[in-house]
Design a protein that fits this description.
There is one protein chain. The protein is α+β, with helices and mostly antiparallel strands. The protein folds into 2 domains: 4-140 and 157-191, Orthogonal Bundle (Endonuclease III, domain 1); 229-351, Alpha-Beta Complex (Nucleoside Triphosphate Pyrophosphohydrolase). The chain contains 16 helices and 7 strands. The chain has helices spanning 4-17, 29-39, 44-57, 61-66, 69-76, 83-98, 107-110, 118-129, 138-147, 157-168, 176-189, 209-212, 270-279, 328-333, 342-345, 348-351; strands at 229-239, 244-248, 259-260, 263-265, 286-296, 300-310, 323-326. Strand 5 (286-296) and strand 6 form a beta hairpin. Helix 1 packs across helix 11 (176-189). The radius of gyration is 24 Å and the shape is elongated. It binds a DNA duplex (11 and 11 nucleotides) through residues 35-47, 78-84, 87, 114-120, 123, 135, 137-140, 156-157, 180-181, 184, 187-188, 193-195, 222, 225-226, 253-256, 295-300, 338-340. Its EC number is 3.2.2.31. It catalyses: Hydrolyzes free adenine bases from 7,8-dihydro-8-oxoguanine:adenine mismatched double-stranded DNA, leaving an apurinic site. GO terms for molecular function: 4 iron, 4 sulfur cluster binding; 8-oxo-7,8-dihydroguanine DNA N-glycosylase activity; adenine/guanine mispair binding; metal ion binding; oxidized purine DNA binding; purine-specific mismatch base pair DNA N-glycosylase activity. Belongs to the Nth/MutY family.
Length: 354
DNA sequence: AATACGGGGTT
DNA sequence: AACCCAGTATT
């Protein structure tokens, strides 16, 4: 093992400074797996509550494999990147059917499961099964870029390979999971992405090229981001006194399969909105413009115009399969409505639902 | 190699 | 408003 002294310094730092996190209490393969999937592009604080609630409802692989889509999607509500949980469910079914319910133990096998890439496979293999494979995430990448003063584009796949090879030669053979988690904690609490990294508290400051050169902020080298497109939409809160109309999105693309308030592309004036609703067989008795709402995704921004539409006898109406009349309880307990519609969920029309 | 895919906290 | 986060799959 290369640079054993540095590895020991890192592990000592970890023993003293590691974060206390729920998924570190009892790192079973399922616990580690679930936490790693939830943590993909998602902050620790956002995961804590979802993690606990998810585990209460679906405590093991078998429970997840047997769960309905409604159930696991609802448990994922608010976390985003919903394909993560669809893939995890698929993988759970595969593990039940092909592996006798036992999680594969090597990174090579794990990476073949849906939703598990190089990073997650290595994280599970090292943390749950003690295999010496580096789990290179954004933290390990940033620490590596500074430690080696790498001028490579941090996002490029070839750069990730370099970092992986670097850590593979140095990872602790006795405590591989702790080695990986130590670097994650170091990146999250000391070797911060923005602002001044706290090099005084870093166990690797004396072997870090960027720090020794006083150039911490020159690394990592991050490419410019693609610009975001803007989409204008009109959203209808169609309701009577007890129910509101929901539409299930298609099974591909953004927010696939989730429930939304029905709407259409573009901005409709009140009169064209009334016409639009009538063309779709609805007879609004009252219509009222709502304050505009905006929702920003990574790659697209929605600018939404909303109308509060009172439609008598909504719950008695025959509806196509991808529509539903939801009660307040349904909204809270059954249908997964993504955060993009939070402004409308908070509208008076919804709040006054019986 | 680039883009799609969520949501929210930080700066 | 831009940046970032315990990334993966698809194009």
């Amino acid at each position: 093992m290369k640079d054993q002294k540095e590895t020991e310094q890192l592990l000592s730092w970890y023993d003293a400074r590691r974060r206390i996190l729920p998924w570190r209490e009892e790192p079973t393969p399922y616990h580690v797996w679930l936490s790693e999937i939830m943590l993909q592009q998602t902050r620790v604080e956002a995961v804590r509550e979802h993690y606990a609630r998810f585990l209460r409802e679906l405590p093991d692989i078998h429970a997840l494999a047997s769960a309905d889509e409604d159930c696991y999607l609802k448990l994922w509500e608010g976390l985003g990147y919903y394909s993560r949980i669809r893939n995890m469910h698929k993988a759970a079914v595969e593990i039940e059917e092909r592996c006798g319910g036992e999680m594969p133990k090597t990174a090579e096998e794990l990476v073949r499961l849906p939703g598990i890439g190089e990073y997650t496979a290595a994280a599970i293999a090292s943390i749950a099964f003690g295999q010496p494979v580096p789990s290179v995430d954004g933290n390990l990448l940033r620490v590596w870029a500074r430690k080696t003063a790498s001028a490579d584009n941090i996002k490029a796949p070839a750069t990730v390979k370099s970092a992986r090879a670097y850590y593979a030669e140095r990872i602790s053979r006795t405590r591989p999971g702790d080695y990986n988690q130590a670097l994650m904690d170091l990146g999250a609490t000391v070797c911060l992405p923005k602002g001044q990294p706290d090099c005084d508290r870093c166990p690797w400051s004396r072997c870090c090229s960027a720090h020794l050169d006083g150039r911490e902020l020159d690394f990592p080298v991050v490419p410019a981001k693609a610009s975001r497109r803007v989409e204008k939409r009109t959203v209808f809160i169609i309701h009577d006194s007890s129910h509101v109309l929901l539409h299930r999105r298609g099974d591909k693309g953004l927010l696939a399969g989730l429930w939304e308030f029905p709407g259409t592309e573009g901005v409709l004036t009140k009169s064209s909105a009334v016409q639009f609703l009538q063309e779709h067989g609805l007879k609004p008795t009252e219509i009222r413009k709502l304050p505009p709402a905006k929702h920003v995704f990574s790659h697209v921004e929605w600018r939404m115009t909303g109308y509060d539409v009172f439609a008598d006898g909504l719950s008695a109406l025959p509806l196509p399969e991808d529509y539903a009349a939801a009660s307040r309880t349904d909204l809270e307990e059954i249908y997964t409505v993504p955060s993009a519609f939070a402004a409308f969920l908070n509208s008076e029309a919804i709040r006054s639902l019986l």
